[in-house]
User: Fold this.
Amino acid sequence: MTTLRALIAAALVVATFGWAVAKLPPPAPLDDKAKAAAEEKKAKDAATADAAKAAQARAEDRVAARYVAEQKAKGKTVTPQMAPNSQPAPAPAKAGAKAPPKKQ
Assistant:
């Protein structure tokens, strides 16, 4: 009996919520100031996401380097595997060597 009451109460809550949401008016169109603020927020979020990705990559590199060093100290040879979506680290430039042209 209590399960039936709980089910009825849940259905009533869902129906009431749906009815309330259906009656809400559509959002007002954004003015120029709001559009500019939204674009600024989008750019800021993108920069934050890029910084987080870079921090994650640095942390993963530190962990991998530490693991390789620990295994080397134990006398084991470890060859790190690259993930399918990762890019290899650029090789250090030699003194006096020209840098390759950047792709556009």
About this structure: The chain has a mean pLDDT of 83. Residues 32-79 form one domain. The CA atoms of residues 22 and 30 lie 22 Å apart. The helical segments are 2-22, 32-73.
